[in-house]
Fold each of these.
Amino acid sequence: MSELRAKESQQKQFSENIEKCRNKLYRVAYCYVKNEQEALDIVSEATYKGYLAYERMNTPQYFDSWMTRIVINAAIDHLGRKKRVTYMEDHAQDYAAAEHAVPLEEKLDLYDALDRLMPEEKTYIILKFFEDLRFREMADVLSLSENTVKTKFYRIIGKLKTYLIEGEVDRL
Amino acid sequence: MTGKERYEHIEIPAQLASVMESAQRKAAARKRSMRMMRYSSVVAAAVALLFVINIPTVANALSKVPVVGSIVQVLQFGGGGEVTDGVTVGTEASEDVFKIQFDQEGQSVSSVPAYTVDHRDAPNRLIFTFNGVRNFDYETIKKDMLALPLVKDVYENVILDDSAMRFVVELKDGVKHTVSEYKDPGYIELKLTSTGEPVTPQEVFYIRSEEMPQGESLAILEEIYIEDDVTFIKTASSNFIAVIGGFDTREEAEQKLSEISARESYGDDLRIDSWMSNERPD
């Protein structure tokens, strides 16, 4: 009975924790796909995975980082699958055309710059600029060393600089 | 508006809360069915154990084998052991024999923890799963097993159960194996023998996932395709894939994939691939 109660308590804890950060998780997911339905799918999948794995989580105080990582992985997996489907169904051109329909000046900010990055690269921009995380915190979310995070981050910034001649990135 | 401001203004859909609640309900249902499955497996293993040790001729014959501890069963694949929790693991290895020993609070256990061992080809491998082993020292097993000349590789499979442990032992081509379970003290002995005969590689067809690093994503695939007998193997670039099969022909694999893809829950995350039985997939 006590084991059952402990499990119920864990489930309740998970629900309470995820409720506190659900808007943030949605925004992170949305940045990868920029589509409401797809972002909801990602958050749903991440919630499912998180719920199943919560028992094994040793550091509940880092729930936020842990859950963010699951959303990031779910988003990257989602884009990987979508890429395959898009290629097979040959919708790539339509999608690209829709993206180019926005005014040029709007493309010169980091939110738009995300569209030019690989799924894994988007993560660094979202966490650093939109979630205002320090490198140490980013390293915790990504389970990487701080130095690795810095190296990858500056490489991505370099890549963006080649795309964006003016705009926020140049003022870093 | 700056990029950050646009991020902060991303509209939160009204249905977000209900979508997340529904995902939690789905996961809770999944968890209940996993628990049921685990208890059923333990009961099945216990029944199998009773069956083997209750055959007098088998027990008599096996008890004459000169070993420390009495033998419970010898198997190529299957399972056994008893329900335990919190046991630790030690190893003892010679050139072709590997012993996995178990301790609980510093004492040798009388029976090994509940386990299963499965054998698969292409690549030639054994899949060990132990239940009730929260302190399983996988690194010791891996290091010592890799030192065996007939073992090609050892790698872990992540499963969504923190009291269980699964690892794969890839054997060199043509290597045969026997797994023996002992009690008083409880340990498992893996004996490897090389036939010495050249093995002709064959093309084998699989239904596979994309390759990915070891982790939860793979464990989730197991949850999804558990009824399709999914297993996990290492790729040439040291990542991992989930595989269903192998099949002798592409047609057989296609037929199975069409069966899977007809399911409403199918996420279009599998494809057909083939490789030689002595090689690793890309």
Amino acid sequence: MSASALSDTGGIPALELRRVTRDFHVSAGLFAGKRRLRAVNDVSLSIETGEVVGLVGESGCGKSTLSKVLLGLLPASAGEVLFHGEQMSHQKRRAVAKRIQPIFQDPYSSLNPRRSIGSIIAQPLHVHGFGNRTEIRRRVSDMLDVVGLPSRLAQASPAQLSGGQRQRVAIARALILRPEILICDEPTSALDVSVQSQILNLLLDLRREFQLTYLFISHNLAVVEHIATRVAVMYLGRLVEVAETRAFFQAPRHPYSQALLDSIITPNPAEGIPTVHLGGSFPNPIDPPSGCAFHPRCPHAMPRCATDAPRLLTDEAGEIACHLTNMQQGA
Amino acid sequence: MAAETGSGDPLARELSRGRVLWLRGLGHQGFLMGAVVLGVIVMMAVFAPLLAPMDPFEQNLSARLIPPVWDDRGSWAHPLGTDHLGRDYLSRLIYGAQISLLIGIGAAFISGIIGTLMGVAAGYFGGRVDMVISFIITARLATPVILVALAIVAMIGASLEIVIAVLGLLLWDRYALVMRATTQQICANDYITAAKAQGCSLARIVVSEILPNLANNLIVVATLEVANAIILEAALSFLGLGVPPPLPSWGLMVSEGKSYILFDPWLITIPGVMLFLLVLAINLVGDGIRDVTSPEGRN
């Protein structure tokens, strides 16, 4: 794996999820009581130091819930999150904050409009008890330099900045505590196309400079192909396929991954809008289909798919949860 | 990259925030008018001992019910005439500004603290806390303020402090409603999530992330409540259960003049006009502050 060349971790992953599950209880009506919604279902994933894992899937498949669990903002209903082999649930809130930081989708709602850029970036330092004012000012100005902003912007207010500049500020704020892991939740989808690539390249540069590990959540497959070393596909709260980026984009194996790749609209209008063989709409997460959650939309569904849920099995090409491939390998 | 950093309003960058607000305030007619009237009344209250020509409590029964100077029978000895006990009306009017402002600001301050605490708690925590607080707010909204205030004052007696306390404990509902809704909106923003992810304590999130964003709405509601409290005090005093005589409250002056309405109507008109001007000015200033300070609203 190319990532292992970046640093020697002794085989312990930077971030490991072990059978993480998160349930919500939603009201189903006035007298119907509460029903369980399983937003994240039995997700196991390990991310090595220096890796960039792209997490893709439709809206509502549990990507954002998973990121909140990783940030410690929502407790997992079952399962564990481990940083370098240490359980997150055993660590204090601030210790987690020093290791893992978020970057959000909307740079307009992620910066407090009432504070100056400098005080937004310095906030984590204050929270973690760095008292020295001149030292804080120096670090803020260094960090502005790192993300490619002039240090005079420290006095500006967020309203004076463009979307791309705001996202740079959000990155500076996330990096000032020197975390090891960044959770990027659609960090470019609210930006202009011309600015998107600047932010992506900045993230890639920072990864080298700060030895960062990324979990990169996106529904934009082109962005994921550009930045990720590995791709994880999520469907209705479960991981259905994990593979190296190049292999995934050349030959996706899960029928859902294939449909996702088919759905990319090409710049050539002669090809028209792609037909995706995903009949029907996204299923109701409160009442998921039996067996494999994807079987009502799957072009290759077999009788067995409606009864047994496929397990995520590891082979030489990655991990996949599908009876089709499992059967071919078993044969 | 160069183009990106070069963007932004160059004018806004040259001027400090305070200066921008000042210029915008000067360009807002309603705000200017309200601020001038309010400023005059506040000055009246602050410098009452210097401005009042006479002692507002001194009675002179041989000079009762003298009309103001614009009447044929008036004289410059009492520019606004005298009341039924021969007290100088101008002096009472000037000292009355103190009472009205004290009650308005005092009651709005007490209710502001209660309402903001409840509203922020309901908006931030949601769930059960929100359910309980919303129930209390609804119960409060269903209570007739005048009736409850009258009952309490009638039971424990009227004094300036009691009127302020009773109004303060009754007028928090609008604060609570507005702060709850605004806090909910603020908490939906990613900067609150970011603060949590940094390990911020609850106190820090409330003080440095939520309260600064509430300030605008808080000021607007506070001005409305100041005006509201002043009117309620006038109503209570008019009904005889507000500020006790001989304090020169404008509401009490209207009340004392009501038996003379047919022959000496200025006894009611003059304090009535002052109440009207004060409440109007406070509302104009409140609206103006909202227009001038809201970060995006420059309509």
